[in-house]
């Protein structure tokens, strides 16, 4: 879709909608939703707060694993952001992690209103095992993914750009680059916010996608 017919969402209007302890208790599967995922401490809640310009919206913490519920934020009647709990938190029992990963896979593969995934990784330690797992689920289910390399303020510009190129190169080598974009991000410096907003506006747009030549849209790649 060209940018000109994409509605611009006022992210500052975001409000807390609900917390779900499991994905089975999510709000109704309608409208458009974008989920923020990533390892514990990657900066998911901080990115949502920067985007919505509301430092109190999503709880952030120095203690990894703070976000334990799936938190839904309402942008409009039919548009939502989702803060998924971090994974990779060492103090969570293995069985709980496995259970959570099953829920997550189900959510990514089955949720019709899920239009895109924002996958956050600390720019200093990208593409860990679970990041690759998420990318693999997303690519197989045709879910577009936008990677935020967070905490870029911890690096100078040169090394930050090199880190981005290295991630892009590795994704290509692993054949996980289909429908995946990568950008640098910093919540405290508000760096990369415009780019993130553009991506979210596009994914969350409720305008029907005009099919080329009136042909029905291809199903290739999955449900989303
Ligand atoms: N320097 C810097 N610190 C950040 C940035 N983003 C987040 N942080 C810090 O990293 C820590 C974790 O941030 P959160 O936003 O709570 O991380 P999360 O991914 O929501 O973590 P969980 O809820 O545990 O999964 C906090 O101390 C944040 O202040 C960033 O872009 N730069
Ligand atoms: Mg969090």
From TrEMBL:
Matches recorded under InterPro entries: G_ENGB_dom, GTP-bd, GTP-bd_ribosome_bio_YsxC, P-loop_NTPase
Needed co-factor(s): Mg(2+)
UniProt xrefs under Pfam families: MMR_HSR1 (PF01926)
Keyword check for Magnesium: yes
Domain of life: Bacteria
SUPFAM superfamilies, per the entry: P-loop containing nucleoside triphosphate hydrolases (SSF52540)
Domain EngB-type G: 30-206
Alphabetical UniProt keywords: Cell cycle, Cell division, GTP-binding, Magnesium, Metal-binding, Nucleotide-binding, Septation
Main function: Necessary for normal cell division and for the maintenance of normal septation.
Protein family (similarity comment): Belongs to the TRAFAC class TrmE-Era-EngA-EngB-Septin-like GTPase superfamily. EngB GTPase family.
HAMAP family reported in the protein's UniProt record: GTPase_EngB
Name recorded for this polypeptide: Probable GTP-binding protein EngB
Organism of derivation: Microbulbifer elongatus
Designated gene of the protein: engB
């Amino acid at each position: 879709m060209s940018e000109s017919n994409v509605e611009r969402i006022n992210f500052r209007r975001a409000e807390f909608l609900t917390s779900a302890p499991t994905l089975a208790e999510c709000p109704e599967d309608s409208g458009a939703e974008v989920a923020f995922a990533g390892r514990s401490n990657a900066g998911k809640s901080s990115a949502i707060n920067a985007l919505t310009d509301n430092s109190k919206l999503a709880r952030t913490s120095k203690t990894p694993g703070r976000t334990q519920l799936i938190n839904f934020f309402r942008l409009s009647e039919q548009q939502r952001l989702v803060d998924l709990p971090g994974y990779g938190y060492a103090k969570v029992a293995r069985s709980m992690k496995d259970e959570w990963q099953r829920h997550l896979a189900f959510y990514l593969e089955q949720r019709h209103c899920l239009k895109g995934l924002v996958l956050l990784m600390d720019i200093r330690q990208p593409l860990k095992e679970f990041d690759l797992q998420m990318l693999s689920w997303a690519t197989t289910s045709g879910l577009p993914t936008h990677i935020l390399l967070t905490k870029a303020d911890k690096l100078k510009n040169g090394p930050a750009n090199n880190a981005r190129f290295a991630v892009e190169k590795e994704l290509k080598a692993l054949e996980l680059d289909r429908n995946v974009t990568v950008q640098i991000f910093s919540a405290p410096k508000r760096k990369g916010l415009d780019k993130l907003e553009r991506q979210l506006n596009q994914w969350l747009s409720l305008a029907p996608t005009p099919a080329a030549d009136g042909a029905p849209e291809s199903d290739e790649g999955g449900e989303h």
